[in-house]
Write a structure and sequence with these properties.
single chain, 75 residues, alpha+beta, Metal Transport, Frataxin, Chain A, three-stranded antiparallel β-sheet, two-stranded antiparallel sheet, 5 strands, globular
Length: 75
């Protein structure tokens, strides 16, 4: 299994848009995204900070419901 890179919230949001997710709103430092099929995810947006691989893995597996390999193809 390939290792996940450290990504910023901006980089993750670009991948989400490629996957068909739409930015819905932001509350504080959290960006909310929604897909037409009902899937949703929240990405913390802290300036200059990268998202930890554990949280990124949770977003990919539970929220996006795709494999790591598929996610990495969209980078």
């Amino acid at each position: 299994m390939p290792k996940l890179p450290l990504l910023t919230a901006r980089e993750i949001s670009k991948v989400l848009k490629k996957l068909g997710f739409v930015f819905k709103r932001q509350e504080g430092s959290h960006m909310f995204f929604e897909h037409a099929d009902g899937r949703t995810t929240v990405v913390p947006n802290h300036a200059g900070e990268e998202i930890d691989t554990g949280l990124l893995n949770k977003i990919i597996k539970h929220d996006l419901k795709i494999s790591r390999e598929e996610f990495l193809r969209y980078l």
